[in-house]
């Protein structure tokens, strides 16, 4: 028995020694010669590259956007008008939102085509932010504004002078912007709804040094030490949990010198503090604030941290300073570590970490240099929380679902001329809540009516959608003016169910005006509908061609180009008249030119 204990002890000690060796093994020396890829871009990078589903995008001082694949291959390079500002954002489905000349806001599709440019009524000082339905928020020194996917400004709010902390989203979809000036040593923030309503002013427990948005709310770290989670419950902000600066868990960290965050999974965030000449890391549960683990990174200077990023392929994080870069898991195991290039040729201005685990260095020599870090099975990619929306905010009136069948006309408020005028002009702020509630009420009732007819059920009375088709068309044409992602869902559902020729034309025009088709459901609905449209309905088919092209143009995705071209090729069959075939050929040519 004694011998067994000795053997077990020896094995455990050996395993510990091996683990310690792996933890402390020498760092890899990175150099241009050992790079996985090197690419030349059209200028010096102005800011850190932004990740996309296909790789990453870099903004340069040569007024260029350069899109690269995961292995560094240049996919496209496009000029942007004006003097670019040193920040931009990648939003839903790889769309880019850029700023130039301080006020010019542009939406650029995944192939680099500018879709629109609008002038913001103030100088923008942060990267744009995307809301849950892809509405776009921009922040100035004393202002916040919101834009739809169509470039229409929904609202603008004036604030006190704002600081450098980023706009941060809470668990209910509202967000906080932080004042620059503290109130007696306490940071002050303003909570604003996605519809431009100022909801409350919040005075925090101290000076906030860093913030990060997670599913449960906003994590904050304070200058005097300590951290906590700000959340919304029953319409008010609350402190869901907090760890005091004098908590024993922080005993070996210099927490009074501030902290940094990186959230790297649905429920885990790494909190960094200085600790002597090292960096102390605490892995915290977002839900309850429990410290799950803690460890020290010896070769990392807290005050020189230059990049923090989650690792997409696992529950790990990337961190670097001016000299070294690392990948750690939540237990403190170093999965990869390297010394950054120090020679002048490879001088680094910005460091980025890509979704496929490449470290990308941007230098002043117009070079992008990539280094493979770790390789993980694709099955272990970290989970991404399902994207919510704002639909619960809209007062959908289900009483209309029954009453529509007994009315001869649609209530006037749904087609009010002033409402339509304001939708086109913008700055309708909180009116959007009621108006979208009205729109959803009509669309839901309309869909139910179509579903009943589609199922073959008969009604002795005509629905309001048959007796007042002109008002219905006006409502359908309102859909793209809201500029929200859910517009494509509404349109695809209606196209699938509709059989009336004039309404199909209206639906195609509305979809063409919107253009956004995030998941391809609009084109899928059109492809299915083509099988049911009689070949003799030339007007409908011609309108459909324009709709397909506008969706392909707006989305800028090769897969949708191919899908759109397949739809057009079916219209070349001999059962369609020459006018339809000519339109299809012309549309095929236009879609093909989008690929160039």
Largest sheet: 5 strands, mixed
> Strand content of the residues, in percent?
25-35%
Measured between the Cα atoms of the first and last residue, the distance is 76 Å
Helix count, per DSSP?
Answer: 12
Q: What is the count of β-strands?
A: 33
> For the largest beta sheet, what order do the strands appear in spatially?
1-30-29-28-27
Could you list the spans in which at least 5 consecutive residues all have pLDDT below 50?
1-23, 379-386
The residue-averaged pLDDT reads 90
Radius of gyration: 28 Å
Ordered list of secondary-structure elements with their pairings:
Layout: H1 2-24, E1 28-29, E2 37-40, E3 50-51, E4 55-60, E5 64-69, E6 74-79, E7 84-90, E8 96-100, E9 104-108, E10 114-119, E11 129-130, E12 136-139, E13 143-147, E14 153-158, E15 168-169, E16 175-178, E17 188-192, E18 198-203, E19 208-214, E20 217-222, E21 227-233, E22 236-243, E23 260-263, E24 268-275, E25 278-285, E26 291-297, E27 307-311, E28 316-320, E29 324-329, E30 334-339, E31 348-353, E32 358-363, E33 367-372, H2 400-403, H3 417-425, H4 431-454, H5 464-467, H6 469-478, H7 486-497, H8 501-514, H9 521-530, H10 538-555, H11 558-570, H12 578-594
Parallel strand pairs: 1-30
Antiparallel strand pairs: 2-33, 3-4, 4-5, 5-6, 7-8, 8-9, 9-10, 11-12, 12-13, 13-14, 15-16, 16-17, 17-18, 19-20, 20-21, 21-22, 23-24, 24-25, 25-26, 27-28, 28-29, 29-30, 31-32, 32-33
Helix pairs in contact: 4-7, 6-8, 7-8, 7-9, 8-10, 9-10, 9-11, 10-11, 10-12, 11-12
